[in-house]
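Help wanted!
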Amino acid sequence: MKTSLPWKLWARQVMAILRIELAKNFKRKRAIPVYVLAFLPFLLWQTHSLVHIRGWRTCSGSEDLMVYAGVFQVFVLRLAIFFSAVAIFMNLFRGKIVEKTLHYYFLAPVRREVLVVGKYLSGVAMMVIVFGAGTALSYLTAVNHLKLTASRAVVPAAMADLPVYVGVTALACLGYGAVFLVTGLLFRNPIVPAVAILSWESIIVFLPAVLKKFSVIFYLESLCPVKVPFHGPGLLFTITAEPTPAYLSVPGLILLTLALLALAALRIRKMEISYGTE
Amino acid sequence: MSGGRIVFEDVSKFYGDVLGVNRVNLSIPPGITALVGPNGSGKTTLMNLITGLVRPTRGRISVLGISPDDPERLFKVVGYCTQFDSFPRGKTGYEFLYSSLRLHGKSHAEARELTMTALELTGMTDAAGRRVAAYSKGMRQRIKLAHAICHQPSVLVLDEPLNGLDPMARAEAIALFRSLAAEGLHVIISSHILHEVDCISDQVVLLNSGYVVAEGQIQAVRSEMNQEHPLQIMVRCSRPGALASRVFTLDHVVEVRMHADGRGLLASTRNPDLFYQALNQAVLEGLIDIESVAPADDDVHSVYQYLIGNEGEAL
Ligand SMILES: Nc1ncnc2c1ncn2[C@@H]1O[C@H](COP(=O)(O)OP(=O)(O)O)[C@@H](O)[C@H]1O
Ligand SMILES: [Mg+2]
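Answered by r_m:
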């Protein structure tokens, strides 16, 4: 006897959840800082090329690409996507509890696991669209600017890195999304765990390779096309793990994400509706 | 699907240290079942247990053979109208039902049709295009009802569904419950006022402080309560001795005790209605003057009195 799993039904239900949630994710108030964070680098690079065109300052093109990589790794990955994920994902379920509407999901013939996947994907889709666009625009601006400088020759090679940057951006949304989905289910107040995770992700460079695997940033950094040499005294203590090749980093990050989602599903399965005492 | 039962086997639910319901054994057949009890007696807890919104601390629950742990199967056959008065933000009545049906996995056409049917049945067709946030309390109650029935479930769980409805809407809702029950559905309704639901219920479950104190058909419940728990009635009056010898001859009166101050008595009766009649008779005949009459504050009986009402009491 073979009972096949109802994948089609699950897919339809996930789509229905996306239809309900996605538009809301874009429209809610807490999305505004997310837009600002996502498009700030773009504005930065626009300003940079404007300054150059006006002839106020000249710059070397290859240095620009290094600066881009630095801004991407420090600002976009570690701060912008990180805190946007806090804002979006921590509230996927918590927000419904505050609103007292989570029971409508629990009263539908939908497995709680499917609900977790649908909600998660609605957050991921929103983040990937916004940050994917932000990264693509800022990178195109930066590369376009190269055409005006002496280093015109590096443009084709630089263009080849565009999909890598967008891809890393998407993976960052995937990874941090899962981290904060789980965090939002485990904690009522998001600040403390968010700060703790930020610290963890920051000290991870000093930790042995085994531990690095339990951070999101570890996978993302080894995927970035341009390595940024970090300066400063911290460097002395940095344990540089061998840069992990993409064919290990990508599955590694996806595995970490799946493990976190499984944890979220377990948590949601046990969840009871009691708005009064929340 | 009809013919199945909703079964509680020795179910208890504690919220931390707080008792929700304790040691509940029930087997609910199709038809209208009323869960009746004062606030805090555990009606909502029982309903949340049936629908898996809370999990039993002990015991097992089965809804037509399905575990409440399996929402994918459960909510194909169960619809639940909760006591929460909250709705997804910004939705119209139509969108509220439609998107819920899409979540059920229905196609656009099916969802549309089922939505229209549910709106029609609850008299909400005209208001369907307006936002739920702008609805009156009665309309919100009706759109919640529409939400509970829109996927055509065979078990309908309704937590205080008549609350907030005007007499007209109330009559319509009751007619709807009856016709659904006539189709073989399980319709479970809670209320803290027995007479609101006793005439439409096929069976009642009386709850008090988390315990099922009586269950069965309404007539049976009434007489069971009287047989097992004679009601103590305290009468303060002139000439209690005369009253005592009068009522002691009645066979439903189990015991009569005189008050020490000689200004009243305490009588235990299995039939309060007849006792009150006899009391009235004594007053009419000029046998006694009554100062006050009150059921003694026995726990189960105060609930009973509160629920089943004081229809025999003429004073
Ligand atoms: N989420 C909860 N946390 C703690 N206690 C609760 C919770 N829900 C219900 N209770 C308690 O359980 C008891 C039964 O409540 P409930 O089922 O809501 O009764 P009813 O619906 O009959 O008013 C009450 O004492 C109530 O205070
Ligand atoms: Mg209640």
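OP: Thanks! One thing I noticed: Chain A touches chain B through 28 residues (CB under 8 Å).
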